[in-house]
Design brief:
With 120 residues, the chain is α+β, with helices and mostly antiparallel strands. It has one domain. The protein is built from 2 helices and 6 strands. It has a 6-stranded antiparallel sheet with strand order 1-2-6-5-4-3, with helices on both faces. It is globular, with a radius of gyration of 14 Å. The two termini are 16 Å apart.
Length: 120
Amino acid sequence: MRTRRQAGIPSRRKPQDSPRRRDGCTIHAGFAGYPFADDGYEFQGRATSQVDPVLTPDPSRLGLRIWPEVGDWPHVVYLHAPEERAIVEYCEADLSVRIYDDEYAYRQACRKLVAEQPCL
């Protein structure tokens, strides 16, 4: 069962000091709210920008892609980077980035996410 915290109430979780390991991936967590992004739409736009020199210093890289098939817009936004085997979850300014060890683990996580978190 997925729960979502009430909009406008900041998370009581502290940012992680170091990444953790689970299910064949390394998980990095933190906060991506104001001034970086006010909501999921702004986060998605900035995180997938191909012209922002901070987010995409090398314009030849594809980087993050919008993943509209999953999530609960604009509160829960997912992005993915197949070349990096990474899935990014933005949930009301809380951010987690999962980087998978191999292609199999990444593809399995993608299938599970699409099945469990479809964007309706």
